[in-house]
Amino acid sequence: MLALRKRLSYKQAKWALGLMLLLSIIMSSFQIIADWREEKDSIHHRIMATFNTVKSATTEAAYTLNSSLAERVLAGLIQSDVFREVTLRDELGNQLAYLYRPVKPSNFRWLSDYLFNGLTKRVVLPLNYDGRITVGSVTGVVDVGAVTASFISRSVRLVGITITMTLLFGISMMTLFYLLTSRPLNRFIKKLSQLSDKTLSSTTLQFEETSRDDELGVLARTFSALWHQQKYVESQLEKSESYFKAVLHQSSECMLLANLKGRILDCNSEASHLLRYDQEHLLTLNIQDIDPKHHLSSMELSLTGTEDVKLFETEYRRSDGHFIPVEVRSNVIFLDEKPHFLASVRDITERRKDQEKVRYLAYYDALTELPNRRFFNERLEKTVEKAKQSGVVGGLLFIDLDRFKSINDSLGHHAGDTVLVRTAKRVQSLLSEQDVVARIGGDEFVVLLPSLSADSDKAQAEVTRLANDILDALSRPIHLNRTEILLSASIGISLFPLDQSDGMNILQKADTAMYQAKENGRGNLHFYNDAMRNSAAERLAMEKALHYALEKDEFYLVYQPQVNDRGYIIGFEALLRWHNKELGQVPPGRFIPVAEEIGLISELGQWVLDTACHQLKIWQDAGLPARFKALAINISPSQFAKDSFVDTIQDVIERTNIDPNLLDLEITEGMLVESITSVAAKMRSLKEKNVHFSIDDFGTGYSSLRYLQHLPLDQLKIDQSFVRDISSDPNSHVIINTIISMASHMNLSVLAEGVEHGEEKDILMRIGCSRFQGYYFSRPVEVDTATALLLNDAPLPSNMDTKSSITAAAQISAGG
To answer: Contact, 768 vs 744, CB < 8 A?
Structure first.
């Protein structure tokens, strides 16, 4: 209960009473002042009237000098209560009579003196006989208390009545305020004090004041509504918190909740299991204690104020000091209106091992444990570039075992595998630490010699010596199960950088030289020196011809069928071809790298897009088989990297009026390394238009599995290098099986390229591949033949070449 002085009714009455007293005093003062002004005139008239009543008698007494009459007249003046002292004098100033009356005592004497201050207290009245002769004067001293007593009495009564009325009104107001305001408020406050009771529900607390139609009723209703709303929000927050705690503690992943300083506030049992801490100990740690690489300040800046989920990989330290790789999904959540970090942590140790395994299988030969073609190609490009900068001559040896197939056929694949392993070890034993030997095919090995000599003649002599040592080492018999196996090898040699050839050209030259060595009788070596000069001249001619090839309409497209597991066509891949009058038919592997170097590849890519989409429109209008999925078009890295790429594709779709669902754009893994964010944004923009995406030559690039799962892909195309070796190389079999399994989990289709034999198709089907492309089904065909294949709609391979199909196809291809 509040003290009286703190209550609103008391404060209201106090201030109201004070204001009323002040106002009443002011008003009374104004009234008294006005009354006093009138009273002064009244007193003056009264004095003069009193003198006038005795004027004739006093004049007579003064004229006749009758003292007895004078005293009687003055006695009458004294009795009027106007004067307290009167004197009558003759014309000579002699006193005829004098009377004095004592002043009556009064409590307001001081007030009478104050009021009469400034007024004449001694009044002298001259006496004239017959109006001409002054016979004397009468003087009276005014009794101030007597003449003002009436005025003071009235004023005191007025002030007393006013104050009494004000006090009574104040008491009435206080009572009224208490009854109408303070008492209802006290009841309301008493109800509010019950809100601290946690067990009080929204239905048990009711405010009687809500039925009132005044301000208190509005306040009660408003507060009641707000309180019920708060209880509802609290109820929802409790449910949300309960759900959050259930999710946190029942999640199968490690869950950590921390404040912005990194202090761990909560965790689940999986966190304790993953980090090898008991839960109590874990709650005493900071994020930096388990993740020393974690920079909380930068993460705080990137996460605070946003609800975006941040995904990153790091390493967490367990209680035993051992670090484990983890993937962290973190974001900011608000609990009690305060931001917190919520992190979902997943142990990716196995995924890292799988990635390392896939990378190893992709870059190393499982049988000989030597680097494979992909590893070698990468190392070769870097070595050639370094040799160009340093001016040192390097060498490349292409080694092929002679008649190795006969060993497999006669002694079995196990014997062949042993021969390959022994061959790898013998070659490796002759090399220095900087040299690299790789197995790039069934019985094909290559040796990279980064630094032979700064002098080309000395380099040639050194590589010749090493090649002869390799030939001698491989010619030594191999003993296997009491069987002596005699080997020989042919070696092709290419030196670099004697011209501007890149790594692939140097490898091709060594390959050509190796075949020349075989033609020269096997078991020897051959240099590619003479062909280098011819190749340079041929390249210059090719560059010149490429600049005019589009203008002269020398390019054309061929279409290689893509089939399902029953051999029916489900799509085509559009492939670029070039026929020049001087150079003849130029393979794509030769002119496309040149076009990229001289900056023509984007123009060529646009031509391929326009031409292929135009042909797709013709087939679309003629009617495609229901199983037909898409026409695949290869996109070059420089073409895809342009900011206008998305607009270019949309423009082609609109101009040719094709169904975008029938368009499949093939990109390479190398594009994903450049800028995954830009690549994903472009792909999503076109994916919204129903355009499909495939990764071409999958397994030969650098793509991360984590990147792939965030891209809108539809299909992976297994590189033909894996398919070519699937029947003889267990490594390729494992890689393809891994790719198919991974694609299945990511809901991606898989298409195997380079299928050239029925055996390869059968193996691929057994491990889950159902889409194929390769010479086994059909070589790339010109547009009329492709149209005929669509019309015939028969499984491949087949011998479909009837005149009627070709004629009808020609009409359709022409748009007729």
So the answer is: yes
Q: Residue 313's beta-bridge partner residues?
A: 327
| Residue that wins the pLDDT comparison between 504 and 780 | 780
- Rounded CA-CA distance 433/447 in Å is 12
> What is the distance between the alpha carbons of residues 801 and 813, in angstroms, rounded to a whole number?
16
As to burial, measured by CB atoms within 10 angstroms (0-12 exposed, 13-18 middle, 19+ buried), residue 420 is buried
- Residue 579 has a CB neighbour count (10 Å cut-off) of 12
Residue 226 structure tokens: 């707000």
Task: Kindly state the DSSP code that residue 702 receives in the 8-state scheme.
Answer: -
How far, rounded to the nearest angstrom, does the alpha carbon of residue 160 sit from its chain's CA centroid?
A: 80
52 contacts 79 by C-beta, under 8 angstroms: no
Beta-carbon contacts of residue 681 (< 8 Å; ≥ 6 apart) = none
Average pLDDT over the chain, rounded to whole? 84
Closest CA to 561 of 327, 773, 277, 810: 773
Question: Which of 34-38, 283-287, 692-696, 760-764 is predicted least confidently?
Answer: 34-38
Whole-angstrom Cα distance, residue 787 to residue 810?
Answer: 8
In degrees rounded to 5, what are phi and psi of residue 105? -65, 140
Measured CA to CA, the distance from residue 787 to residue 804 in angstroms comes to: 12
pTM of the model: 0.42
**Which is more confident, 476 or 117?**
476
Measured between alpha carbons, how far is 287 from 569 in angstroms, rounded to an integer?
Answer: 56
State residue 691's pLDDT score.
96
The encoded tokens of residue 173 equal 């107001």
Specify the 3-state DSSP secondary structure of 307. Answer: coil
Q: What is the spatial distance between Cα 794 and Cα 788, in angstroms, rounded to a whole number?
A: 10
Checking DSSP bridges between strand 749-752 and strand 771-772, what pairing results, if any? parallel
- DSSP notation for 719-762: -HHHHHTTTT-HHHHHHHHHHHHHHHHTT-EEEE----SHHHHH
Q: For residue 84, what pLDDT is reported?
A: 84
Residue type for 86, please? V
- The per-residue pLDDT for range 649-688, each reduced to its tens digit, is 999 999 999 999 999 999 987 676 556 777 889 999 999 9
Examine residue 588 and say whether the peptide bond preceding it is cis (omega within 30 degrees of 0).
no
Could you read off the pLDDT of 767-784 as tens digits, one per residue? 999 999 999 999 999 999
**Residue 655: helix, strand or coil by DSSP?**
helix
DSSP string over 22-52: HHHHHHHHHHHHHHHHHHHHHHHHHHHHHHH
Predicted pLDDT of residue 535: 54
Query: Residue 683: is it exposed, middle or buried by C-beta count within 10 angstroms (0-12/13-18/19+)?
Result: buried
- Within 372-503, strands assigned E span 393-401, 436-439, 444-453, 478-480, 483-485, 489-496
Q: pLDDT tens across 142-160, in order? A: 888 887 888 888 888 888 8
